[in-house]
Amino acid sequence: MNNLAIGVDFGGTKIACGLVDTKTGRLVGTTKKKTRVLDDSKDVQARLQSTIDELLAETNVDIKDTLGIGIGSAGMIDRKKGVLLLAPNLGVSQIPITEPLSKHYNVPCRLGNDVEVGTLGELEYGAGRQCDSFVCIFVGTGIGSGIVCDGKQYLGATGTAGEIGHTIVVPDGRKCGCGGSGCLETYASRTAVAKEILAGLEKGFDSGISDKIDLSKGIIRSKALAHGVESADELVIHAITKAAQYMGIGLASLINFYNPQRIILGGGLIEAVELYLEVAIKETRLRTLSVPGRHLDIVKAELGDFAGIIGAAMLMKNHKQT
Ligand SMILES: [Zn+2]
User: Fold this and answer.
1) 177 CA → ligand 1 middle, Å
2) Could you tell me the CA-to-CA distances from 188 to 59, 140, 212, 247, 282 in Å, in that order?
3) Segment 208-267, tens digit of pLDDT
4) How far is the CA of 48 from the centre of ligand 1 (A)?
5) CB 146 within 8 A of CB 160
6) Cα 27 to ligand 1 centre (Å)
7) Where are the beta strands (DSSP E) in 167-284?
8) How far is the CA of 205 from the centre of ligand 1 (A)?
9) pLDDT tens, position by position, 45-94
């Protein structure tokens, strides 16, 4: 039996799929398809299968010679049943994932959430190698985190550990998608940056970013923000600095509480906008207690766009071991 496994990164905008050597973390081949709002479980299965079939054809590998298929999905999942419970971005709920795939290909399949597999990828082959205790924080439209304790991922009593995005940083602050208010996610995510920029534009601030933001939805791409920083756009710099300072407040609390060896920051906003990372690290250092702060590294995630695929494939490596 070789060490190859298929990793699937099932996100709000794309399905990316790769063949991974689980012994080295090397990517043998990848395929990608855009996702759209999907109607039912047949739609989801058909798209997953066509992406996997394309990968198998391109790499000329028989799926029976692999360890199976690991899937990392955005949204809420039931790991044991392999069911996607709710993915608001995809417009789907209660979709069985692993059982139909396993039946169709006759190989084992496992489902994890996107943050969990991203953390697993960094643990095995990224910035978390040879580190026993760390937290990975992914900053994009939302904020999620994965916790590693004693060299293993910690998922919590109900499998929901790591929801740093919903720690409260402003009492009675902005309303959050979770039903609460003042959550870190509403102040430090890319969505929060977009909101701050929109508020500035409404007040009459002049900014070149105004034609790059979807005013009705408050959506902005990380690359447009990076461009704003490069061109010294004051409104963009203000919004990013404010969001990153809130991230530093959240991280300092996390470090004081958990005392990890390392913090790993990843996700679209971190990858694209260096200023966010710099300000977040500075603010964290200012606010963390001296002893846990002194013995701590804060680094960037290493696997970038491929963290989801590699981490999802690692679900099968660990499956083999257990
Ligand atoms: Zn929340």
Assistant:
1) 6
2) 40, 9, 20, 6, 15
3) 888 777 767 777 888 999 999 999 999 999 999 999 999 999 999 999 999 999 999 999
4) 30
5) no
6) 35
7) 262-266
8) 29
9) 898 999 999 999 999 999 999 999 999 998 889 999 999 988 766 777 88
Domains 4-120+306-321 and 130-301 share a fold: yes
CATH number of the domain located at residue range(s) 4-120+306-321 in this protein = 3.30.420.40
* Topology of the domain comprising 130-301: Nucleotidyltransferase; domain 5 (3.30.420)
User: What are the structural domain ranges in the chain?
Assistant: 4-120+306-321, 130-301
Query: How far does the centroid of ligand 1 lie from the alpha carbon of residue 116, in Å?
Result: 19
Cα(113) to ligand 1 centroid in Å equals: 18
What's the CA-to-centroid distance between 257 and ligand 1, angstroms? 19
Model pLDDT, residue 321? 46
* 70 closest CA partner among 117, 26, 29: 117
Determine which of 21-25, 184-188, 219-223, 253-257 has the lowest per-residue pLDDT on average. 219-223
